[in-house]
Each structure stands twice: as structure tokens, then as C-alpha cells.
Amino acid sequence: MKTSCYDCHSNNTFYPWYSNIQPLKWWLSDHVNSGKRHLNFDEFNSYSQEEKLKKLDEIIETVKDGEMPLTSYTAIHQKAKLSLSDRFEVKKWVNETKREVK
Ligand code: HEC
User: Fold this and answer.
1) Domain residue spans in the chain?
2) Ligand 1 pocket by C-beta < 6 Å: which residues?
3) What confidence tens digit (pLDDT) does each residue in 14-46 have?
4) In terms of Cα–Cα distance, which of 101, 4, 5, 6 is closest to 54?
């Protein structure tokens, strides 16, 4: 999750070398801001219970459908690609977190 999602969904955005190159810089910060608005792992604990469960379901869905991480991002950030076992881990994490939230 840290490698594949945190760049756009947490306050610890790691801006790689290419982020200094326009238009990549603009492209990346646009995605980071929009991604954070939808989901910010650093603020996860401040979400309401209902919101947490909704976000967790969305995580499963976007990962299952291969929508996240964005393909335009994995194209230049190979390490962020999710393998089958990564997806399995994400699912496991979501289910564990759901139990904690409930
Ligand atoms: C390159 C930036 C980027 C990365 C990396 C990324 N996301 Fe996103 N994410 C976005 C953006 C931008 C949105 C806003 C929705 C959109 O515009 O498609 C979003 C939206 C979401 C949403 C909300 C969908 C909705 O309907 O509101 C979820 C859940 C999500 N991402 C999960 C993840 C997970 C899980 C990962 C890692 C496996 C991940 N994202 C990696 C940029 C990113």
C-alpha cells in the first residue's frame, strides 16, 4: 500500500525526480490533490465509522477492477504495480481493518 497508494493518498507524498519536469509536475500534483480529497490514509482515523467502511469497500473495488493505482502512474512507476499476491494482501488488510472498525 505504501509503495502503490501513498503517493497520492497520504500526506507523505514522495515526489520522484521526474516530478520536477513539466508537465509531469503539474500532472502529478493534480493527481495527488485529487487523490487525497477522495482518500487520505493519514486522515483515515478521523473518518466516521460509516465513512471508513465505505472507503474500505472502495479500496477493494478499485484494486479488484485494476483502476488503482492509476495506470498512467504505474507506467512510469513500475514498482507500484500490484501483483496477484499484492491484491490478496490488500484484501486481507481491508478485511482486518473492517473488523477493527466494526
Ligand atoms: C497517481 C496517483 C494515484 C495512485 C498511485 C493511487 N490513486 Fe487512488 N485515486 C487517485 C485519484 C486522482 C483519485 C480520484 C478519482 C479519479 O479521479 O479517478 C483516486 C481515487 C481513489 C479512490 C476513491 C474512488 C472513489 O470512487 O471515490 C480509492 C478507494 C482509491 N483511489 C484507492 C487507491 C488504492 C487502494 C491505491 C493503491 C493500490 C491507489 N488508489 C493509488 C490517484 C491515485
Assistant:
1) 6-101
2) 4-5, 7-9, 31, 34-35, 38-39, 58-59, 62-63, 68-70, 73, 80, 82
3) 666 556 666 566 666 777 888 888 899 989 989
4) 101
